[in-house]
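All the exercises in this workshop are built on plain-text protein records. The record below serves as our worked example for the rest of this section.
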Amino acid sequence: MKATHIMAAAIAVVLLVAGGWWYLNRREPRLIQFPAASASADSGAFSYERYAVALLNYVNNRGMVNYRDLKANSGDLDAFSASLSLVKPGEFDSWSDQQKIAFWINAYNALTLEAIIRNYPIESSLVRSVVYPKNSIRQIPGVWDQLRFVIASREITLNDIEHGTLRAQSNEPRIHVALVCAAVSCPPLRSEPYKADNLDHQLDDQARTFLRSSRGLRINRGEARVYLSPIFKWFG
């Protein structure tokens, strides 16, 4: 009888946790918009100037972001994020492949920063904290597949950028060391935007930097083992 009661209690706990997880993740998609007035005053060619200022001021040489100060002074980041929605499809189509790849990488990283500062300090949930650290980006409900942004006149999620656009439309494996999901295990965020005319060098440098870190590659000679980032398993 005791075994039956224990089994019933275990099933009840599992159902409770599963129900709580479903409840926390059932939220409707949410659109994050930036006032057009936030965009740069000039309506000329698309520019990374304001994004470059934000990165220079709030990302250190180890790729760590000062989210508290960035949230308090988000004008440059917001201006760049607003400018993403103003890009015309025809303008985007006229760009080279390198320009498009740089654009999407910068958009992904900038909008990840936006998602975090709009939820900073991150509030943890009891259920998610069983699996993820309390300050993890994963504590933000639907951060990759429910939060939506406007880019080039269409609504898009971070997952859409990574999987539906960059992975689907470009043959560039190095994007995976450039896209920064803001988790400790992710590659570091560069303190400069990616630019088409320097993209190859930047991606090579980013790959080397990541592989030199313990997050990317670690050799334990005592165990005769090589440890690689899960990125190589997910996208290898």
In short: Strands lie at 30-31, 147-151, 154-156, 217-220, 225-228. The chain has a mean pLDDT of 87.
